[in-house]
From TrEMBL:
Residues where pyridoxal 5'-phosphate binds: 117-118, 146-149, 215, 218, 240, 270, 296
Name the record gives this protein: Kynureninase
Highest taxon above the source species: Bacteria
Quaternary assembly: Homodimer.
Key words of the record: Hydrolase, Pyridine nucleotide biosynthesis, Pyridoxal phosphate
Pathway, per record: Cofactor biosynthesis; NAD(+) biosynthesis; quinolinate from L-kynurenine: step 2/3; Amino-acid degradation; L-kynurenine degradation; L-alanine and anthranilate from L-kynurenine: step 1/1
Keyword rRNA-binding: no
Gene behind the chain: kynU
Enzyme Commission identifier(s): 3.7.1.3
Any Pfam family matching the protein: KYNU_C
Length: 414
């Protein structure tokens, strides 16, 4: 973790007893405007179990099993091929993209669902580089990135004859220049939970004439993103974390409307053709968001995602952010009270403007600590070396969960 700045946990209020913190948790739960959303999810029967890994795999929304059963039995089992037209299968990638769009601050017609985040990173980086022109010969990539983005950006750079330059998100505004074709940045660092300055990096990229590509895996469904308002050019993200789409659910790709006509996909499958059923030998791309499609989508996962997204009906993403910050603040406060001083170090910035929806705590023996936590029902995860990660999904995480998780953590590291 040498490259990660360590932040000490802030001094918080005077010592509190478990009973005080439990009372405070109940008070916060009582005032929680999103509390009713919890019932929309399948969670553990045992109150001892606390799921804090929704930043890796979100919980199952209750609506999904019945919807999937219907899709299998009726749309596939009975309707078969007719479902492409009569059950809306063909348009599902754009239709479901439009359900995600408001959560990431996009007007309709700019988000398409399909493929994996990795594949969409590749499409976006090559697409941006092709639009940037020959004289721009470098791609900036987040040096602290989730690895897959770095691997794909390197391949995209090699295929397009560009040089890949890894720089930290903080260095990006100064590093971007007239040679830069595209900048690929994570909105939140998967390891530390740090929220990067997407508006600032986007503005710097644009001032230098470069395109900005954002990876929203750790922010879509966790906080307001404002893609349209901030001028982000391209964005990708997965749907199995805070969007609760299920294991391997399709990712999304945002193509800003003004770039759609010029987008030159490196994966021009027939579903991105202007007239797919023309079945012509020549490729002619769709001039709208369909340009982001490739081939036949994974309909079962896609329709499970569509059902999962119903939990967002009527939810204000600003309220989600407020609760997320309250959850992470309360967790840090409880950990401060329960863990022996100096045993854990908070790697996640304490500043709200720089915090996503997870808390990462450094401790040398993170791996056995997390194994013990999981055996006691507190499910987070760890990332080598030494980082305990706890993800807070505001739609289903309660303050009571948070207090219990911190208390058990205190026992385990005590
Ligand atoms: C920031 C980020 N990008 C990409 C991915 C994964 O991409 P994929 O779904 O293609 O495996 C993850 C998590 O797995 C991630 O955290
Ligand atoms: N995508 C994952 C997978 O295919 C297997 C196990 C975990 C994941 C994850 O989502 C990890 C996650 N992106 C992370 O932040 O580390």
């Amino acid at each position: 973790m040498s490259e990660t700045p360590m932040t000490s946990m802030s001094p918080m209020s005077p010592d509190a007893e478990p009973a005080d913190l439990q009372r405070e948790a109940l008070r916060l739960d009582g005032a929680d405007k999103l509390a009713d959303r919890r019932d929309a999810f399948v969670l553990d029967d045992s109150p001892e179990t606390v799921y804090l890994d929704g930043n890796s795999l979100g919980a199952l929304p209750r609506a999904v099993p019945d919807r999937l059963a219907h899709v299998v039995a009726h749309e596939w089992g009975s309707m078969r091929i007719r479902s492409w037209t009569e059950s809306g299968w063909w348009e599902a990638p754009e239709r479901i993209g439009d359900r995600i769009a408001p959560l990431v601050g996009a007007a309709p017609g700019q988000v398409v669902v399909g493929d994996s985040t990795s594949v969409n990173v590749f499409k976006a980086v090559v697409g941006a580089v092709r639009m940037a022109g020959e004289e721009r010969d470098e791609v900036l990539v987040d040096a602290t990135t989730f690895p897959t983005d770095g691997y794909l950006a390197a391949s995209a750079a090699r295929l397009t004859g560009r040089t890949l330059r890894p720089v930290t998100p903080a260095e990006m505004p100064a590093a971007v220049g007239p040679r830069t074709a595209a900048v690929l940045v994570n909105h939140v660092d998967y390891r530390t939970g740090e929220l990067h300055d997407l508006p600032g990096i986007t503005a710097a990229a644009h001032a230098a004439g470069a395109y900005l590509i954002a990876d929203l895996c750790h922010t879509a469904g966790a906080l307001p993103v404002e893609l349209d308002a901030r001028g982000v050019d391209f964005a990708v993200g997965c749907t199995y974390k805070y969007l609760n789409g299920g294991p391997g659910s399709p990712a999304f790709l945002y193509l800003r409307r003004e770039h759609q006509a010029a987008f030159d996909s490196p994966l021009p499958g027939w579903h991105s053709h202007r007239d797919p059923f023309g079945m012509t030998a020549d490729y002619a791309p769709a001039r709208d968001i369909r340009a982001g499609r490739v081939g036949t989508p994974d309909l079962l996962s896609m329709l499970a995602l569509e059902a999962a997204l119903e939990v967002w009906d009527g939810v204000d993403i600003g309220a989600v952010r407020d609760k997320s910050l309250a959850l992470t603040d309360f967790f840090l406060h409880c950990v401060e009270q329960y863990a022996p001083p100096g045993r854990l170090e908070c790697v996640t910035p304490l500043d709200h403007d720089r915090r996503g929806s997870q808390v990462s705590l450094y401790c040398e023996d993170a791996e056995p600590v997390m194994a013990e936590l999981i055996s006691r029902g507190i499910v987070g995860d760890h990332r080598r070396p030494g980082v305990l990660r706890f993800g807070f999904a505001p739609l289903y995480t309660s303050f009571t969960d948070v207090e219990r998780a911190a208390r058990v953590l205190g026992e385990v590291v005590g």
